[in-house]
Amino acid sequence: MESPWSVRRPVRELRPGDHAWLAYTGREEQHHVTGAFVRAGLDAGEKVVYLAGAAPVTAPRLPAHERLSIVALGRGGRYGRGGHFDPAALVRAVAEAVRDGADGHRGIRIAADMTWAVRRPSGLELLLGCERRIDIAIGPSTRAIALCQFDRARCTAAELAALGASHGVEVVPDPEFEDSVLRIVRTFRPPGLALSGELDASRHAVLLEALTTAAAGAGGREVHLDLSRLRFIDLGALNILADAAAHADGRCPLVLDRMSPQLRTVVETVGWHMLPGLRLGG
Predict the structure, then answer these.
(1) Is the Cβ–Cβ distance between 217 and 252 less than 8 Å?
(2) CA dihedral of residues 191, 192, 195, 200 (deg, nearest 10)
(3) Residues 127, 71 share a domain
(4) Residue 175's pLDDT is what?
(5) Which of 36, 75, 141, 202 could form an S-S bond across to 11 if both were Cys, CB 3.0 to 4.6 Å?
(6) CB of 127 within 8 A of CB of 84?
(7) Listed residues 114, 142, 172: the one ending a domain
């Protein structure tokens, strides 16, 4: 459940002072978004700190880099207290990262997967108190950006709503492609792509590349295309979708969601909806 109180920003638009959150559906989404957050910091000459639940840390596909530190908060970690959630330790870790990161770096980014803390006794209540204190530690004057991550599968809707309300920014994936005409964004619930704008002949290559990436990330599941904000699509692009569906041969179906009535009529008139690898969604 996304928070109605949060501003939604792509990773690349995060700015100093942002205390952002990500409710990820699975590891693929976590790796995609958090990886972009970390890489953006390293590319910008910032120090990056990844805070995890326990040692040994299993971080999401993070590159080895001298400006990247990975720290365990729980059992076996620097701030551990018998595996229990220690709110003071979390706030201390963030404050130390902000202080140390300001020394000789352009900024500091802190990424923390805090699902483990929610699942500890009284974890949500304690964590919400921490988030208020982290808001104080993270501010525009500190040149710091924080990204807190939570696994949807291990949190209730009420917990996610409370966590969302405690963050000023909800982070979303960077576009796979964006110009003045077309925007393509990776989606994870369900896996696929959201297309906005107009899709013409000059952008067929980027559509094909995005489809290939989305199919690889879907892991054999359906690939959904959200077409609700697509104002125009040419015949060549429709042929690309039909070819992708034909090659899928029913094994990894392409689902066209939220089409305009006009587009749905075209697809049904030419009979593409009868291809075994293509399905019309809601």
Answers:
(1) no
(2) 180
(3) yes
(4) 96
(5) 36
(6) no
(7) 172
Beta strands in 78-190 (DSSP E): 108-113, 144-151, 169-172, 175-178, 182-188
Residues of the chain with pLDDT under 50: 1, 55
- pLDDT at residue 22, as a whole number: 97
Read off the DSSP letter of residue 61.
Answer: S
**193, 210 Cβ separation under 8 angstroms:** yes
Question: Quick one: 23 and 38 in the same domain?
Answer: yes
Cα(56)–Cα(63) distance, integer angstroms: 17
Same domain, 22 and 151: yes
Q: What is the pTM of this model?
A: 0.84
- Report the largest interatomic distance among the alpha carbons of the chain, rounded to a whole angstrom: 65
Task: Specify the 3-state DSSP secondary structure of 2.
Answer: coil
Structure tokens at 253: 């179906």
pLDDT digits (tens, 9 = 90+) for 203-245: 999 999 999 888 887 777 889 999 999 999 998 999 999 888 8
Q: How many helices (H) and strands (E) does the chain have?
A: 8, 13
Taking the CA atoms of the chain, what radius of gyration do you get in angstroms? 21
Q: What distance in Å separates the CA atoms of residue 168 and residue 51, rounded to the nearest whole number?
A: 20
The reported pLDDT for the residue numbered 9 is: 96
- Structure confidence at residue 1 (pLDDT): 47
Please tell me whether the peptide bond between 56 and the residue prior to it is cis, using omega within 30 degrees of 0: yes
